[in-house]
Amino acid sequence: MRKTIECDPNVSNFTKSFKNIGYNHYSAILDIIDNSVSAKATKIWIEYTKDSKKSLNVVIADNGCGMDRDGLIEAMRIASSDPTLKRKDSDLGKFGLGMKLASFSQTDKFSVISKTKKQSVCSFTWDLNYIRVEGKWLLQEENLSFLKPKEQGTEVILYDVLEGENIDEVEILSKMRTHISVAYNLIKGVKFYINDKEINPIDPFFSHNIASNHSNIDSIYIDNITLEIQSHQIPHISKLKPKDKRLKNELTEIGMGPGLYIYRKNRLIAWSGWEGLGSNLRINDLFRVAVFCEDNADELFNIEVKKSQISITDKKIRTVLRNTILNYTEIARKPYKKRAQLSLKDVSDLWYLEKNENGKITFELNKKSQAIKLYHKGEIKLTQLLEMIQNTLPYESLMYYLNLNKVDNTEVNKKKIETAKIMFDCGLITDEELKNLKYKYES
């Protein structure tokens, strides 16, 4: 039999690593809110208050089922749940780590106060500075009361969060409001408040807008796991009303763009980016793919403790998602294609598009246009013609085809060399400069 010795982790050093486990402020608060949703709360309050130390205290309170003393002790335990066991339908948790690690990522000290309908208030505090001194995981029982008057529920109090003189409280509250609005937009029967102001849900796909487009929901089955997939084309910014434009800007501020939107139990946990399954071309920036799953799909998406990052390594699901993305990419490009076509005819007929046998295109000046005809007749000045050519350059069409890699670069380079020869003949460049340009565009 092998000899063994106890080798406990150094408590002081171990606890100092909590702030570097990958949470940001917003993902941490969302993880704590998940516990309130799991407790079947109908109201959830987030309160930010500044203290004398120029830091913020944050309270996440709910009117959920609450916990008795023994239940709260267990909830304060690190890794209180077995991640391999099936959770209740309303339970957004997984590892039994979320509330604790999310709190520790923001502060060295936090308290939880809770009460069931039939039991009295109980409260406990984790204080990492106290634990470091004692060298043991000692949970402190407190005599705290609810900040919000209610018969039952739970409050998590984070002390001294986001310390410093340059805290932009307005920006923090604004971004937190946006995170909550969009992350829980499909969670029904729950009202959210920040500093007593109710938060309205935000649909990241602007489905109510007549210019939006979406597919039917497709169900797919992978190893007895059901996933639902829906593709969305959000409206072009020009089709949004002022209010929706503001919302679109708010979503952009928190990193929401084209890509996969993963909903776990109707809670949006990850967004934007294609995981190598789609194109990051600018032309696809109206395209989103929503994937709805339950907690039995966690391993397919490698969902980690924070529930805010994914990585898709399963070959089956990668194939399904890749095919879905390819099928709907063309639909999402249609608004840009239409704008690209219109930009060629918007003001004048000075420009046209030439397509070769390989589907590659170049942009040509239309020498048969009305403006050029008038110039040849002497009815307009050269400066006027040049102004029209310059002002009608089809930027949107150029951007569309450049993003699709459809521009015939060989033909473009050929035209540059022809232009260089004309400039040489006119004495505008030297023989050496012409040779350099020919070398540059012929190679």
CATH-level-4 superfamily name of the largest domain: Histidine kinase-like ATPase, C-terminal domain
Low-confidence stretches: 90-96
CATH architecture of the largest domain: 2-Layer Sandwich
Largest sheet: 8 strands, mixed
Indicate the overall shape.
Answer: elongated
Q: Supply the number of helical segments.
A: 13
Helix content: 25-40%
Percentage of β-strand residues: 15-25%
N- and C-termini, Cα separation: 72 Å
The tally of structural domains comes to 3
User: How are the strands of the largest sheet arranged?
Assistant: 5-4-3-6-2-1-7-8
Write the layout of secondary structure elements.
Elements: H1 11-15, H2 25-38, E1 43-50, E2 56-62, H3 69-76, H4 98-104, E3 109-115, E4 122-127, H5 128-134, E5 140-141, E6 153-161, H6 169-183, E7 191-194, E8 197-199, E9 213-214, E10 218-222, E11 225-233, H7 242-253, E12 259-264, E13 267-271, E14 287-293, H8 315-343, E15 351-355, E16 361-365, H9 370-376, H10 382-391, H11 395-403, H12 409-425, H13 431-442
Parallel strand pairs: 1-7, 12-14
Antiparallel strand pairs: 1-2, 2-6, 3-4, 3-6, 4-5, 7-8, 9-11, 10-11, 11-14, 12-13, 15-16
